[in-house]
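2024-03-11 09:14:02 DEBUG pipeline.ingest accepted 1 chain
2024-03-11 09:14:02 DEBUG pipeline.ingest length=196
2024-03-11 09:14:03 DEBUG pipeline.predict start
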Amino acid sequence: MIRINLLPFRAARKKDNIRRQVSVFLLMLIIVAIATMSINIWMSNNVQALTNEVAAKKTELARYDKINKEIEKIRKQLKLFDKKIDVIKTLELNRKGPLRLLDSMTGIVVENRMWLTSMTEQKGAVNIKGIAIDEETVANFMRRLEASGLFASVNLKNIKQTSVGKQKMSLKSFIFNCRKKAVKQPAKQPGNKANK
């Protein structure tokens, strides 16, 4: 009978299997390493892109902050200009006020019976000093002041006997305290404000 020894074939097959398994394992290791490196490179590129985008956004934000500061500065200047314009308008209205008051006084004074010695105005309060022939003239002047529409209130502060001139004429010296009516401010124009 012939005997065949299969042991070397089995050992060779076993070695071949081990070699194949080691090759598959090394191949898998190489594939995992390549995949890991690819993912790492892809993630690094994404991180770099996001970092660049964040830097660009920060630069843009800084530019917009600068523009916002300039806009706020311009708004403050516009508010200041609006206040100055309002003051100028008020001054313009008040500039004509004393002239109108003096002009109106010429029609209120009782002719040939009295004269004014001084008239002062401060913050809407007007003090009128003058000399009249008698109390009736002072009363007539007071009624005219009230009827003029220039004053909200007219109060006689005092009236006293006084001597005037070389002949020492006996006349009446008087002082009135009056409160002017408020001057109406011009209406604000719509669209005048820049920060609407």
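2024-03-11 09:14:41 DEBUG pipeline.report The chain has two helices and four strands.
2024-03-11 09:14:41 DEBUG pipeline.predict end
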